[in-house]
Amino acid sequence: MNCIFCNIIDKKAHAEILYEDNETLVLLDIHPLNYGHTLVIPKEHHENILEVPSDLLKRMIIVLQETAEAVKTAVEADGFNIIVNTGRAAGQTIFHFHFHIIPRYKDDKVTKLQLKTYPEGEFKKYADKIRLVINNKVKKNG
Ligand code: 5GP
Ligand code: ZN
């Protein structure tokens, strides 16, 4: 498998590494939405958020929180977005799980996703559809 992030982790490809520990690596995104755009990745190869073991994900969240605060301070951002693209349809291009931390500034021109409005009756229908799957999963897991 040829994975650019695995190659970076193995130091076979260059990256601006900001932090690493036994399980996690933090690096600058090469094509930033704003300067300082940072990625937090697990050292183990997992394709997406659904594939990452939950214990690892929990530990990554702590690194994510600390890194987001550090990035915000370092680049003097007004805020930041944390984004996880999952699947080609959602814009995922590297199939090694990663969190994006995107610094944001008041009035920056990074575009917002287009928001929809539910047609009459659909709001509850979607809620019911999702609740059904959540409840089945809760039952299955005891
Ligand atoms: P995705 O679209 O999969 O959510 O995000 C992949 C991200 O990885 C993109 O923002 C892209 O700019 C970044 N990226 C792709 N190749 C490289 C690389 O070789 N080095 C670094 N540092 N970032 C990369
Ligand atoms: Zn990988």
Task: Give a verbal description of the structure.
This protein is of the alpha+beta class and 142 residues long. It contains 3 helices and 5 strands; from the N terminus they run αβββαββα. A 5-stranded antiparallel beta sheet has the order 1-2-3-5-4, covered by helices on one side. A hairpin with a 3-residue loop joins strand 1 and strand 2. The termini are far apart. The model has no long low-confidence stretch (mean pLDDT 96). The protein binds guanosine-5'-monophosphate (5GP) and zinc ion. Zinc ion binds next to helix 1. Guanosine-5'-monophosphate (5GP) binds next to strand 2.
Numbering strands along the chain, what is their spatial order in the largest sheet?
1-2-3-5-4
Strand content: 15-25%
Radius of gyration over all CA atoms, rounded: 18 Å
- SSE succession: HEEEHEEH
User: Biggest sheet, open or closed, and with what strands and sense?
Assistant: 5 strands, antiparallel
Arithmetic mean of pLDDT: 96
**Looking at the structure, what is the overall shape?**
globular
- Would you report the number of β strands? 5
The percent range for helix content is: 25-40%
Question: Any ligands, ions or cofactors bound here, and which?
Answer: guanosine-5'-monophosphate, zinc ion
Low-confidence stretches: none
Distance between the termini: 36 Å
The total count of helices amounts to 3
Decide which structural class fits the backbone: alpha+beta
